[in-house]
Design brief:
Nucleoside Triphosphate Pyrophosphohydrolase, 7 strands, elongated, NUDIX domain-containing protein, alpha/beta, two-stranded antiparallel sheet, magnesium, hydrolase
Length: 158
């Protein structure tokens, strides 16, 4: 005898959930990487943020970066998908998407969102990696490699 199927609402309610964020790798004509210093955490980060309900990751990256920097941005190719297990106070896995944000020629266009950001800077790669937390450093260096190789890369913190 076969087991009855669950109705879709019940079945979907049993599935695990994750947190999702999306950001952009943006550089300047000299090849320096753009990082932001949020005022709500001690470390620097990529420009980007958390995906809202019914929002695609690439749309989130565009919205968040435009809001944070005050500059309209184009979202290019997917560079990295990074899966991280639950950690510390985060009770669910996190999936981070990094898209290519291209080269921003005129840094004077940037108007940082003062309510959220303390600083915005184009930094040499060797400096940038010292300002990021461990898994974000890995994500940044992997995004650089993916852009160079012209292919997306999957990361896992397992």
């Amino acid at each position: 005898m076969s087991k009855p199927y669950l109705d879709p609402v019940t079945w979907y309610a049993t599935l695990p959930t994750v947190f999702v964020c999306a950001c952009l790798l943006i550089t300047d004509p000299e090849g320096r990487v753009l990082l932001v210093k949020p005022n709500y955490r001690p470390t620097w980060d990529f420009p980007g943020g958390v995906v809202e309900e019914d929002e695609a990751p690439h749309e989130c990256a565009r919205r968040e970066v435009t809001e944070e920097l005050g500059v309209p941005v184009e979202v290019g190719d997917l560079l990295v998908v990074h899966w991280s297990p639950p950690s510390g106070e985060r009770p669910r896995p996190l999936i981070s998407f990094v898209f290519d944000g291209g080269v921003l020629s005129d840094a004077d266009q940037i108007t940082p969102e003062a309510e959220e950001l303390d600083e915005v800077a184009f930094l040499p790669w060797h400096t940038a990696v010292t300002l990021l937390s461990g898994n974000i450093t890995t994500r940044l260096l992997t995004a650089r490699l993916a852009r160079h190789e012209g292919r997306p890369i999957y990361l896992s913190d397992e």
